[in-house]
Design brief:
The protein is an alpha+beta fold. The protein contains 6 helices and 14 strands. Its EC number is 6.5.1.1.
Length: 308
């Protein structure tokens, strides 16, 4: 059995709720069985909160300067922007998961691709960024996103972001590169935006959003990360990025319902809701063909002149 050195377990990470660093480590110890399948083989960007959610945080891609235990696997990846080799952690086992939690990694952020095929993600993700919109409005947009994907012959999964947003995933075979996947995600976003123009936007500029929900496709990029399913968030009430059944996603649903305590009970009762579906990939080419057909303007009926 691998021994992981754990320190300062009594340090308070959520002052209002009273949750400690030890609670974080205990959560990941109990949830390792459902967290690890979404982390294995993927490079990670560490988001470290060494003094809890009120004590400041920092991102760490390159761990070359850290003396890592022998059970922690890493991978060297050349950064496309600088040409430098960066050494990323790859979380393949429970010991590594607990080691990261001990470093103050409340959240687990990973790439959309695995080491064996770094250029090819195995899912597409659309991040619904809420701005000042209500969660009920975000739910409505998520459901419309699902309808668009279903109309194109695809299947999708949904989870809370753990904060105020929603993530829609589309499982894929890792044979398409990030540019191809992002282009299809953009097609989905544009169709949803066309259907819900007053509530959504595809503009990445804050000035262009005007309190609308941003359909963010940028997570579908080389080196980009998304918070993993079942990851804790450094947010009030120690919320979790919770995979849901689409039937659970209602206007009355609240992200605060899924937190450090409740998720352990939920998984014990329901298991991993994504387990079966995540292993059934969609055809990106089929989705692309259907979506392009849906994106075309409607043709006028025969015998009638087109309106100008």
């Amino acid at each position: 059995m691998i021994k992981v050195e754990l320190k300062h377990l009594d340090k308070i990470f959520w002052p209002k709720e009273g949750y400690s660093k030890g609670d974080v480590i205990q959560y990941y110890e109990r949830m390792a069985g459902v967290v690890l399948p979404y982390l294995r083989g993927r490079p990670m960007v560490l988001v470290r909160h060494p003094n809890g959610i009120k004590g400041g945080s920092f991102f760490q891609k390159n761990v070359a300067s850290i003396h890592l235990p022998s059970f922690v696997r890493t991978v060297k990846i050349r950064a496309k922007s600088t040409g430098r080799n960066l050494q990323y952690v790859v979380c393949n086992n429970k010991a590594t998961l607990l080691y990261l939690a001990n470093l103050g990694c409340i959240e687990m952020h990973c790439w959309g691709s695995r080491v064996r095929k770094l250029d090819c993600p195995d899912y597409m993700v659309i991040d619904l960024d809420p701005g000042r919109n209500t969660f009920a409005e975000i739910v409505a947009v998520a459901k419309e996103t699902r309808k668009v994907i279903a109309a194109a012959g695809g299947t999708s999964l949904v989870k809370t972001s753990g904060k105020r947003g929603i993530h829609v995933y589309v499982p894929l075979r890792p044979i398409y590169d990030f540019d191809e996947v992002r282009a299809v995600a953009r097609l989905v976003a544009e169709i949803v935006n066309r259907r819900m123009p007053k509530l959504t936007t595809v503009s990445p500029r804050l000035s262009g959003r005007k309190n609308r929900i941003f359909l963010d496709c940028a997570r579908n990029g080389f080196g980009q990360t998304t918070v993993a399913p079942y990851s804790l968030r450094a947010f009030a009430k120690a919320t979790v990025s919770a995979p849901l059944d689409w039937r659970e996603l209602t206007a009355g649903c609240s992200p605060a319902r899924y937190h450090l305590r409740s998720m352990v009970r939920r998984v014990r009762m329901k298991g991993d809701l994504w387990e079966a579906a995540i292993g059934k990939p969609n055809s990106l080419r089929k989705l692309e063909r259907s979506l392009k057909g849906m994106a075309l303007p409607a043709r006028p009926a025969k015998g009638r002149p087109a309106r100008k």
